């Protein structure tokens, strides 16, 4: 395979910037998606549940929830846990849809469901809208 030359510096910098932004938004998306899942499945979302399921400390969850509140995505109610705002609910739905699409695509190209779920956790945040649209088209052609 012939060696490819480096892209122009500004083009490469834009690629790296996009990936850094995806890294920053991944935590936000993971938190709101998990809060929505907990509310749907268990009727409540508590910080202790997030810490246990994400695998971080309670202090990390508290700091992240504070940021999500400032961003207008999460509300807390004394003695009642965490709730999503309208914006948080919309973001959670978008994140869940991307995740589900990524899982279906990975299974369609031959991964087992467990590996597809694991890999989708990172890939869903980094795939461009163009890539996601291509995955959806691929699945549509496959009848999925």
Keywords:
single chain; 144 residues; mainly alpha; Arc Repressor Mutant, subunit A; two-stranded antiparallel sheet; 6 helices; 2 strands; 73% helix
Query: N-to-C terminal Cα separation, in Å?
Result: 34 Å
Q: Helix segment count?
A: 6
- SS elements, strand count: 2
N-to-C SSE string, H for helix and E for strand: HHHEEHHH
**Full CATH superfamily name:** Winged helix-like DNA-binding domain superfamily/Winged helix DNA-binding domain
Provide the number of structural domains: 1
Helicity range: over 70%
Give a written overview of the molecule.
- There is one protein chain.
- 73% of the residues lie in helices and 6% in strands.
- By secondary structure, it is mostly helical.
- Helix 2 packs across helix 3 and helix 4 (86-108) packs across helix 5 (113-126).
- The mean pLDDT is 90.
- Strands 1-2 form a two-stranded antiparallel sheet.
- The chain has helices at 9-42, 47-54, 58-70, 86-108, 113-126, 129-141, and strands spanning 74-77, 81-84.
